[in-house]
Design brief:
488 residues; mainly alpha; Proton glutamate symport protein; two-stranded antiparallel ribbon; two-stranded antiparallel sheet; 21 helices; 5% strand; globular; transport; symport; Na:dicarbo_symporter_sf; potassium
Length: 488
């Protein structure tokens, strides 16, 4: 028995030595972005075919697939363990602080977008000379809102891992009775009037029908995981086995992230270079569209470089740039992938290892933030809506601007952390004030670039939010540590 125990201890010791001996993962360097940009513009003159571009971008596609592979188990395991590690009082306070932060920064972002676009006024002139690209799917604001609620409560958790509910529209014919004209009825015999009362006409109408789209239903999984983790946390000893399982799963996922980090610089290089090579003729980006691009960049910079760091400093009284320096890997990954969900594994690693943020906070705040906290998207949608009004010479009154603010804030919550989701939710914002949704095609040409910038802003907002929530929740976390110490 003693010999067996000695062997077990020896094996454990060797495993620990091996883990220590492994080199730490290489950082995602800023050189990946600059090198990818240079390589992309160098290869543009060669006019590569669509097939050649896809082959060239393959290393970048692999990075996206590897990161997306980890998103689903990471969201579930991190939220379950995060909620289970907190008591109901602490989780409630932390959740309230996170929601207040999300709403505050999103509203500020929308206001910045509106002020900047009104001051710069990039939509001067006419839209006739502007280049259009792509096609827009129509959707009503009511159906989009109901879809958001439906996706919060998926009927099948397995299906929620790869599908989301989405209302589709189809044409259906309806018989509508024709009401007879009273004057005409009085002038004809009774049998004719009776015949006229039975006349009907057939009309066609678009009706909503249930449908689905491919993609992880992150919102539904977040809601379920939070509830599941909360219940496990209140089960005390009975839930210990489940807590340990999800904690081990989370740790295993983070070790896989460490491996992927070695490949990330190469993947980001080819993601950016491939997108630049794939770009349409740069000549279409001129005049109003160029001014629109500059306006969005200015708005995002004000929010990301001034507002968010200032908010972090005012709450924590710490240097925000030291904190942001620890996020460099996550921000560059966001710039390369243009997906806050795909960046989530790297964001976890940066916050926990580089900035030392409590795991109970990151596991609770980050998955929720990556799903509903979209500062960059909200700013972009409000700004783009007013830009489209400007190119249509449509004068917006104060009430309509308030409507745009509210719908942009709400629509950004429904924009899942996937590439170019903002274009879909933009339809809701335009519909709310009667602007032509087809004019979204005017800004698609530059959306691939702006999408990367607003995703980076989203990730920065989520990360600084985790730091702020940790600071505000430090007393609850400390009390929880004391309680756990007493119990042990």
């Amino acid at each position: 028995m003693q010999a067996a125990t000695a062997v077990e201890v020896s094996c454990k010791r060797r495993a620990e030595i091996c883990m220590v001996a492994l080199p730490s993962p290489g950082p995602v360097k800023t050189g990946s972005v600059s090198e990818g940009t240079i390589l992309g513009f160098t290869l543009r003159p060669y006019r590569m075919s669509y097939r050649e571009v896809k082959y060239f971008s393959f290393p970048g596609e692999l990075l996206m697939r590897m990161l997306q592979m980890l998103v689903l188990p990471l969201i579930i395991s991190s939220l379950v363990t995060g909620m289970a590690a907190l008591d109901s009082k602490a989780s409630g306070k932390m959740g309230m602080r996170a929601v207040v932060y999300y709403m505050t920064t999103t509203i500020i972002a929308v206001v910045i977008g509106i002020i900047i676009v009104i001051i710069i006024h990039p939509g001067k002139g006419t839209k006739e000379n502007m280049h259009r690209e792509g096609k827009i799917v129509q959707v009503t604001a009511a159906d989009a809102f109901l879809d958001l609620i439906r996706n919060m409560f998926p009927p099948n958790l397995v299906e929620a891992c790869f599908k989301q509910f989405k209302t589709n529209y189809e044409k259906r014919s309806f018989k509508v009775p024709i009401q007879p004209n009273e004057t005409l009825v009085g002038a004809v015999i009774n049998n004719v009037s009776e015949a006229m009362e039975t006349l009907t006409r057939i009309t066609e109408e678009l009706v909503p029908v249930p449908g689905s789209v491919n993609g992880v239903n992150a919102l539904g999984l977040v809601v379920f995981s939070m509830c599941f983790g909360f219940v496990i946390g209140n089960m005390k000893e009975q839930g210990q086995a489940l807590r340990e399982f999800f904690d081990s799963l989370n740790e295993a996922i983070m070790r896989l992230v460490a491996v992927i980090m070695w490949y990330a610089p190469l993947g980001i290089l080819f993601l950016i270079a491939g997108k630049i090579v794939e770009m349409e003729d740069m000549g279409v980006i001129g005049g109003q569209l160029a001014m629109y691009t500059v306006t969005v960049i200015v708005g995002l910079l004000i929010h990301a470089v001034i507002v968010l760091p200032l908010l972090y400093f005012l709450v924590t009284r710490k240097n925000p740039w030291v904190f942001i320096g620890g996020l460099l890997q996550a921000l560059i990954t966001a710039l390369g992938t243009s997906s806050s969900s795909a960046t989530l594994p790297i964001t976890f690693k940066c916050l926990e290892e580089n900035n030392g943020v409590d795991k109970r906070v990151t596991r609770f705040v980050l998955p929720v933030g990556a799903t509903i906290n979209m500062d960059g998207t909200a700013l972009y949608e409000a700004l783009a809506a007013i830009f489209i009004a400007q190119v249509n010479n449509f004068e917006l009154n104060f009430g309509q601007i308030i409507t745009i603010s509210i719908t942009a804030t709400a629509a950004s919550i429904g924009a899942a952390g996937i590439p170019q989701a903002g274009l879909v939710t933009m339809v809701i914002v335009l519909t709310s004030v009667g602007l032509p949704t087809d004019d979204i095609t005017l800004i698609i040409a530059v959306d691939w670039f702006l999408d990367r910038l607003r995703t980076t802003t989203n990730v920065l907002g989520d990360s600084l939010g985790a730091g702020i929530v940790e600071h505000l929740s430090r007393h609850e976390l400390k009390n929880r540590d004391v309680e756990m110490g007493i119990c042990s």
